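testing teh design pipeline on a random one, pls ignore if ur not involved
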């Protein structure tokens, strides 16, 4: 069995402004892509893509659903952009406030 290896990239962007911290993580591949119909169902419980009959069908279809729910409970977002034949990009965005601590100087 010959497997196609897709090229993958990931990017992490962190912005810090005073006590506001936000970060974005994008994971991009150059695989087969996901159809618009596939994207609509991607984050549903027990949903699996059936884009290509040769794909591995292991798993329960809960992974992305759980990731999206946890991310939203933490006031973040998880999104996907894809085009058939052009790959897929998953992006996680989170923001938080950090408590600043007074600096101590010991002489």
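output:
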């Amino acid at each position: 069995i010959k497997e196609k290896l897709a090229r993958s990239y990931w990017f992490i962007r962190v912005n810090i402004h005073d006590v506001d911290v936000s970060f974005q993580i994008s994971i991009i591949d150059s695989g087969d892509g996901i159809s618009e119909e596939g994207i609509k169902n991607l984050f549903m419980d027990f949903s699996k893509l059936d884009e290509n009959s040769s794909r591995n069908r292991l798993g329960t279809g809960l992974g992305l659903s759980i990731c999206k729910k946890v991310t939203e409970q933490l006031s973040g977002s998880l999104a996907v952009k894809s085009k058939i034949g052009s790959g897929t990009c998953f992006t996680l965005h989170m923001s938080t406030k950090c408590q600043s601590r007074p600096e101590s100087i010991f002489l």
